[in-house]
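Budget justification note: compute hours in this period were largely spent on complex prediction jobs such as the one shown. Inputs:
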Amino acid sequence: MRTKVKAHTNIALIKYWGKRDERLNLPAVGSISLTLDALWTETEIEFNVRFKTDRLILNGQPATEKELRRTSKFLDLLRQRAGLSSPALISSKNNFPPAAGFGSSASGFAALTVAAARALKLELSGRELSIFARQGSGSAARSIFGGFVEMHAGRLADGSDAFAEPIVPPDYWDVRLLIGVTSQVAKKVSSTAGMNLSKETSPYYQAWINAQPVDLKTMRRAIEQRDFEQIGQLAEHSCLKMHALALSSNPGILYWNGVTVEAMHSVRDLRASGTQAYFTIDAGPQIKALCLPEDEPKVRAMLESIPGIQQVISCAPGPAPQILEVE
Ligand code: DP6
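Corresponding output:
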């Protein structure tokens, strides 16, 4: 009952922000993402009746009580489905620095879901795996698949229609996402806390929910047609709308630093000079630039020339989770 799985993180091009149900972690809006090859989590899990309790090792160190509780609670869902109660030993490591601006939650919960399901001998479809992963973290549901992926908000109270699925095959189209690291400091407001505050206090929250279906439809079509300009324009728009919600919460949440803002201008300046580059930013200060493979050197050079950018990480489309070992 031991399995090792590698899962990749993803970047949302149409952002998820807001929950319709907290207990089941149901998103208030759908989202569209790109799974990334360069950033991943490897998770090994062993269920054993002889273990007394769950134990969790993160990047070689014992996890905090809070992290262990969240993981155990999540594993209980899969144990319940399997009709087993054996405790687990989980060891998980990320290949990316925390400063990359990706919490480990997307790749982490995707890897844990696939590893635990396999170790518990559950035969689950991609849809079922994404429904489980969503209960660990909303963005993790999308990391169950490679390439361009859509997460559905769904309407049902039990969450059975809130799952992710691929829009096109994983190797449909080669694009690049360059991450410019602007700060190593952990964010002050988690995405979960930020989303809840926006729902309670932003006067724009309902407008955000109402506009999302059109953005999703337009993005889906742009991906199918490989319309890079449309994808980029819309990704920037969705990012700025999500940050407008954060900013208009009370108290306002400001995820950017000065370098983030400089970089947003630089991406637009490069675009004005004829290179197709577009930015997106998550709940943190790192800048992420989307471009075509042939423009990667130019976009990298632009990001590297901005004072305050500490490191640039290049990503291409990544695959679905892979089972590395089974015993
Ligand atoms: C800004 O998936 O981390 O990255 O479901 O509460 O765990 P929880 O939130 P999480 O939120 C991601 C927010 C985002 C946008 C996105 O990835 O769609």
